[in-house]
Amino acid sequence: MIKAGIIGAAGYTAGELIRILINHPDTEIAYLYSNSQSGQAITSIHDDLLGQTPLKFTDEIKEADVVFLCQGHGKSKEFLDNHTFSDSTKIIDLSQDFRHQAQSQLGNRQFVYGLPELNRSKIINAQNIANPGCFATAIQLALLPLAQAGLLQQEVHVNAITGSTGAGQAPGGTTHFSWRNNNISIYKAFEHQHLIEITESITSLQADFDQDINFIPVRGNFSRGILASAYTHFDGTAEEALKLYQEFYADAAFITVTDSSIHLKQVVNTNNAIVSVEKHKNKILVTSIIDNLLKGASGQAVENMNLMFGLDQSTGLRLKANLF
């Protein structure tokens, strides 16, 4: 059995991770670290797990085969600077601290960017993983097939809407119910932090890519899920576009490619992603949908764990969608 520890175990992504791991056939949870909740039952925070586990939060770090860092951005590096783990302990970081190439190393720990559809072979041999961002995951799934084919030759326009859980569990001015309900807004237009990792992934496949990615992030009035739509110039036919995406994702464990219209309820509460491909005059429109807490965070982190320990990528992750 793989012994897993979770640092920052009281947050949204940690809650999803706990739910997956207590049902994972090859994993047992060694500890759930939280300074603020130490000694409390985890169901005092993650009450959806009531009746499923007797685990409690702790402020002690124990031995584990893999440690998931589920703290806020900037906290993972700080935590690793102040705590020592065995060289044999694998680290999977869910913050943005090690996603960018210039920041991917800390001491003797080199972090591999953990998007399985891009870096599967590297992940299998990795000791440390930087889990992708949720927006970054959805947008890369929409663009990487074009990049691999060298077809991103003009500006790319992206509009993506996310649920309130994407902002984390700590309440804020734009996350509480009375502001978010019956409301919608744009934030960080053209300068969202996920653009850096998106661009690095694209140029790893298409080295000459030097166009703008015009990204408009939107706050949605729902709890979870991301719908990202991207369009750019494309000279081929609709059939050629669909074939390009089907071939790129032919062996992907959780990706479905379609030319049909899609909606968020098809993937919420699952680790699945659906990518819809359409041709409109001289443009290709690609829409991707994911659950931001699963395929965009904790589910993808477990995909990475599975690959790192030689398991089938989908182990413990075949969850059904709630369509109602």
What does this protein structure show overall?
Helix content is 26%, strand content 23%. By secondary structure, it is α/β, with parallel strands linked by helices. The chain has two domains: 2-132 and 295-308, Rossmann fold (3-Layer(aba) Sandwich), CATH 3.40.50; 134-292, Dihydrodipicolinate Reductase, domain 2 (2-Layer Sandwich). A seven-stranded mixed beta sheet has the order 2-1-3-4-7-6-5, sandwiched between helices. Strands 9-10-8-11-14-13-12 form a seven-stranded mixed beta sheet. The longest helix has 15 residues, at 134-148. The chain is globular and about 60 Å long. InterPro entries: AGPR, AGPR_AS, AGPR_dimerisation_dom, AGPR_type-1, NAD(P)-bd_dom_sf, Semialdehyde_DH_NAD-bd. Its EC number is 1.2.1.38. The active site is at residue 134. Catalyzes the NADPH-dependent reduction of N-acetyl-5-glutamyl phosphate to yield N-acetyl-L-glutamate 5-semialdehyde. It holds the Pfam family Semialdhyde_dh.
Structural descriptors:
single chain; 324 residues; alpha/beta; Rossmann fold; Dihydrodipicolinate Reductase, domain 2; 7-stranded mixed β-sheet; 26% helix; 23% strand; globular; AGPR; AGPR_AS; amino-acid biosynthesis; NAD binding
